[in-house]
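Field reference: sequence -> structure
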Amino acid sequence: MLVKINDTSGNNVKVTKLDIDDFGSVIPLRELDLKLPQDDDSISQTLRHSLYAILFTKEDSEDDGSTVILAKGVTTEELNKEKERTVQAVQDKEKYNKA
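Structure field:
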């Protein structure tokens, strides 16, 4: 899931789950309070140094209290590229449907 990092304190991370709509706008979906693994400091370090991230949780759960098992930091530039790809995919789909 794509998230904005709000707070990484203690053994938890507070995030806002995000989506990108067909027009390339970032839409906040909901706030989540996720657990960080006790035995892997690399995840908390990644999140402390990132504004945005792609997170994977245990059992792919998106519920409060889920444990993060993998995190990849996302820069603002990478987020903007993803927004552009989303808009392009929608435009390509519309062209294909008209043909």
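Note: The chain has a mean pLDDT of 93.
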